[in-house]
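Why should sequence recovery work at all? Because a backbone constrains its sequence more than one might expect. Tight turns favour small or flexible residues, buried strands favour hydrophobic ones, and helices have their own preferences. The token representation captures these environments compactly. In the example below, the structure is given first.
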């Protein structure tokens, strides 16, 4: 019996396949927006006779975010109570069904409702896979894995934006075929993943998920992080939802060219996540990370307002991508460091709910600002100005804290 236990424990050492499964699963959320962004104008033209189509088509893209906003915290709490693996596998399998459904559906309303169901599944997929990364990995290794979450999602977005632009030449329905990738992923989960156990569990065959010293559940700290996650969600989804319309506004209509610009934005997000995980995370405080990432993200939005050509708007999207690649892992790692194992699912779900609620609100907010300010580009730059204000507050807190510490040592 002891030999069998040792053999089973040996099979449950972390290997690259576990990182691949969890990171790719987290990246499934990129499918919600990346493959459809380049074809949104075509989809809107197809349903031009539907009332309020200029709102409904962007909301069809982002309504999964609303479901994730409402249900991620519930999915996280369920994973704390009943376990992670079964919930993750079942949700991933159903994800493929609802993701593929719009290929055959004929009405915008029915497509909208399948996207609602997709969001329900994605709430569990994203929350549980992120929580399991927090369970399986610790310390700087965890920070880098969570930076790689955004790297992987952005790399997938890069590939999917190119693929979406290419498939969009065959019609706006064609990109939905990419959702079939979740089928083999669910099978890999069944084979390789195991249920994590808390530190001190009597089950020696499972990897223990230890809490760092001094980590306790602080609801008000979580609430503050979630408020910033909401703002991050609004900012992060501006290029996926609105960049195609910004290109159309300056006379660029090619799905391929727009897809290339989306892909370059994603490349810069990848660069930002790598910069975070290997340069910023080990060296600077959270406040410094927030100040820098918000400032660069905001600069990209403001540059979008002044862009009048394909190259200048593409460069603005790239600058914004670099900032977004710094901002999201800053928020994710900050939140995870504050959560003990017993509340990790709940806290991760609350964070995801706030993030995705911001993403869902994004088109309503930006289109509303567009109607008030006169153009979508000005609306985007207004979000940039708000982020600059947040950057200034974070910078003031960072340098103020350093000054207080310096005075205390004198």
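From this structural description, the recovered sequence reads:
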């Amino acid at each position: 019996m002891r030999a069998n236990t040792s053999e089973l424990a040996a099979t449950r050492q972390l290997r690259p396949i576990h990182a691949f499964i969890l990171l790719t699963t987290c990246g499934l959320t990129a499918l919600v927006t990346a493959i459809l962004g380049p074809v949104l104008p075509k989809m809107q033209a197809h349903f031009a006779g539907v009332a309020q189509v200029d709102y409904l088509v962007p909301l069809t893209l982002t309504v999964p975010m609303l479901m994730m906003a409402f249900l991620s915290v519930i999915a996280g709490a369920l994973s704390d109570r009943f376990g992670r693996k079964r919930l993750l596998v079942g949700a991933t399998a159903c994800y493929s069904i609802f993701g593929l459904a719009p290929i055959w559906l004929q009405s915008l309303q029915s497509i909208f409702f399948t996207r609602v169901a997709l969001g329900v599944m994605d709430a569990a997929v994203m929350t549980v896979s992120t929580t399991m990364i927090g369970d399986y990995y610790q310390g700087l290794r965890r920070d880098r894995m969570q930076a790689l979450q955004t790297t992987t999602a952005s790399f997938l977005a890069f590939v999917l934006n190119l693929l979406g632009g290419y498939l969009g030449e065959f019609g706006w329905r064609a990109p939905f075929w990419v959702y079939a990738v979740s089928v083999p992923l669910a099978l890999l989960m069944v084979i390789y993943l195991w249920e994590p156990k808390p530190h001190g569990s009597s089950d020696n065959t499972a990897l223990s998920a230890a809490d760092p010293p001094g980590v306790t559940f602080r609801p008000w700290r979580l609430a503050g992080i979630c408020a910033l996650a909401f703002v991050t969600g609004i900012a992060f989804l501006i290029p996926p939802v609105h960049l195609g319309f910004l290109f159309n506004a300056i006379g660029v209509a090619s799905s391929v060219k727009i897809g290339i610009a989306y892909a370059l934005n994603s490349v810069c997000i990848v660069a930002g996540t790598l910069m975070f995980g290997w340069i910023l995370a080990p060296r600077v405080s959270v406040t410094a990370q927030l100040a820098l990432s918000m400032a660069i993200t905001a600069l990209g939005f403001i540059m979008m307002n002044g862009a009048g050509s394909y190259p200048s708007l593409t460069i603005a999207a790239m600058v914004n991508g670099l900032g977004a690649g710094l901002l999201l892992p800053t928020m994710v790692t900050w939140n995870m460091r504050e959560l003990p194992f017993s509340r990790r699912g709940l806290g991760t779900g609350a964070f995801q709910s706030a993030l995705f609620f911001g993403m869902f609100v994004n088109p309503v907010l930006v289109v509303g600002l567009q109607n008030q300010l006169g153009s979508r580009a000005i609306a985007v730059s207004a979000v940039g100005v708000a982020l600059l204000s947040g950057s200034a507050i974070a910078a003031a807190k960072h340098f103020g804290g350093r000054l207080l510490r310096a005075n205390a040592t004198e």
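A few observations help interpret the result. The beta strands are 197-198, 208-209.
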